């Protein structure tokens, strides 16, 4: 998939996964799973004033960790790569103090 936020990186082909792979100018590799991107877009929608800070934090993590899979759920990732670390959106946003709650409720049964 083509994610506009990551166009500044070189797209890498990896037919072994559905996630988009990228490489930065320093050779750091990372993958963005669809679930992570969906969550990232949730922050863009709910906290647009903080979106650039989140993207800057992603850049910092990429440079610091070198091999990353940005996953929707680290307990069940789409991408399994030896030597890579796994980060969910909250791993990026929580240290920045950027939160939003999903206040939707499935039903009022039991109230």
Describe the structure.
The chain has 111 residues and is α/β, with parallel strands linked by helices. The protein contains three helices and five strands. Strands 1-2-3-4-5 form a five-stranded mixed sheet. β1 (10-12) and β2 (20-23) form a beta hairpin.
How do the helices and strands line up, and which of them pair or pack?
Elements: E1 10-12, E2 20-23, E3 29-32, H1 34-46, H2 51-65, E4 67-70, E5 85-87, H3 89-93
Parallel strand pairs: 3-4, 4-5
Antiparallel strand pairs: 1-2, 2-3
State the total count of DSSP E strands.
5
**End-to-end C-alpha gap:** 42 Å
Q: Nearest-angstrom radius of gyration?
A: 15 Å
Return the string of H and E elements.
EEEHHEEH
Question: What fraction of residues sit in β-strands?
Answer: 15-25%
Spans of 5+ residues with little confidence (pLDDT < 50)? none
Average pLDDT metric:
91
